[in-house]
Amino acid sequence: MTQSFFADIKPARYEGADSTNPLAFHYYDPDEIVMGKRMEDHLRFAVAYWHSLAWEGGDPFGGQTFERPWHPQDDMGRAKIKADAAFDMFDILGVPYFCWHDADIRPEGTTFAESLRNFEEIIDYFAQKMESRKVALLWGTANMFSHRRWMSGASTNPDPSIFAWSAATVKTCMDATHRLGGQNYVLWGGREGYETLLNTDLTRELDHMGRFLSMVVEYKHKIGFKGTILVEPKPQEPSKHQYDYDAATCIGFLRKYGLEGEVKLNLEQGHAILAGHSFEHEIAVAATEGLLGSIDMNRNDYQSGWDTDQFPNNVPEVALAYYHILRAGGFDTGGTNFDAKLRRQSLDAEDLIASHVGAMDVCARGLKAAAAMIEDGGLESALSERYGGWDTAAAQAMLDSDFDTIFETVLSGEITADPRSGRQEKLENYVNRFV
To answer: Which residues are annotated binding-site positions for Mg(2+)?
Structure first.
């Protein structure tokens, strides 16, 4: 390993639950077999380049707190120093994947052509590093929300020149993702929404967004990209109201524009919370419709009203998320990306390693608990019992009947509507047995 930001940190290893080493795995053993598959192959961990390496530690009330060897991030020399540190970090953690936005990995140029040259140079640098390493690309994406040009959206922008710039940007990012063997390509509509309806044409903006996503799919097939196209729901932040509000909203959007057979969802824990949902709710909604693609695993601070992107530490929440993922058949091209960042007081290189090690352990515990619940079958049995009445011939016949026939049956006294307990507390206690 070359001298770098992480030079004095040894690779993280599985040491078991009794270890007191803060930089060792206590529960994540990549080779442990869970439900017939290696734990690493179930979880498919990825490091997010933006929060782990590009973020400088600022918040809405204060600026940069991190001082990294690649700061300021404004030239190609420092972009390569950052890449060196990134791949050292991937080696230390032993993760199989990483993810990036274009703006995370290259400095912004004064023209589109200059930005593209910078981008292509760093992609070449990545390709060289990936030749001799285990790590692969889970997904790439374009940052179309930070620069001022996208203050009014990208594909939904009222200015057609911004739509064009957005299309050119996504093309280059898809080309790079394809070249690096990416498993997916993600679109997160950070500013695809509105601040006020006083200056917003909803119909036009949604149609343009639908056409843009159709172009993405068309280009995928043109270049022979075999990965999955994913969209990522979020209800607000930075826009007041975003068009990709939650899983159900995105599913309706995909169906409206005939894209439900081409595009799946990348779901984030923090975004689910902002939408007023639990993470398992969003996963279950996507899975029910066959559109679960991948996840960003993080958490929000429940005392704050914004997207704090903290590393996961709640095993029961994580267990329920993986329960629904496993029930849906597990990941195909998707995985578990840590879209999470350090607290701005956590300044050291060790903090970055410890945060990921702890999060990977939490996910490992959650996965094992989820698998144990599935193998035990208690929740499935409870569902079968609760809905068992629908398996009768009379109940199925009712679905093929009409209101008049049902009315006469009820009026005759053949049916009594006595409520039965949902037994929620017993089921919650059941889950706690496994976590």
So the answer is: 232, 268, 271, 296, 307, 309, 339
Q: Which token pair is 47?
A: 């490091």
Task: For 264, list phi and psi in degrees, rounded to 5.
Answer: -120, -175
- Sequence-distant (6+) residues with CB within 8 A of 231 are 186, 187, 188, 189, 213, 244, 250, 254, 263, 264, 265, 266
pLDDT above 50 (res 2): no
How many CA atoms within 13 Å lie on the side-chain side of 383?
5
Q: How many residues does the chain have?
A: 435
Please give the Cα distance from 38 to 127 (Å, whole number).
Answer: 27
**pLDDT per residue over 123-182, tens digit each?**
999 999 999 999 999 999 999 999 999 999 999 999 999 999 999 999 999 999 999 999
Q: Quick: pLDDT tens for 243-260.
A: 999 999 999 999 999 999
* Sequence ranges of the domains in the chain: 33-376, 392-432
CB 415 within 8 A of CB 367: no
What's 149-174 look like in SS3?
HHCCCCCCCCCHHHHHHHHHHHHHHH
Catalytic residue, candidates 26, 101, 178, 208: 101
* pLDDT tens-digit readout, 268-288: 999 999 999 999 999 999 999
3-state class (DSSP) for residue 241: strand
3-class secondary structure, 402 = coil
Rg (CA), the chain: 24
Q: Give the tokens for residue 227.
A: 């990965």
d(CA 302, CA 315): 16
Assess whether 402 carries a catalytic annotation: no
Over residues 58-70, the mean pLDDT reads 93
Q: Is 45 helix (H, G, I), strand (E, B) or coil?
A: strand
One of 104, 244, 246, 361 is an active-site residue; which one?
104
Tokens read off for 426: 């017993």
Pairing of strands 263-268, 228-231: parallel
Provide, for the chain, the percentages of residues in helix, strand and coil under a 3-state DSSP scheme, each rounded to the nearest 5: 45, 10, 40
Domain boundaries 33-376, CATH class: alpha beta
Secondary structure (3-state) at 140: strand
**In the numeric block, which tokens belong to residue 64?**
């940069």
Query: Please, is 344 exposed, middle or buried when counting C-beta atoms within 10 Å of its C-beta (0-12, 13-18, 19+)?
Result: middle
356 given a catalytic annotation: no
* Structure token digits, residue 293: 């693609």
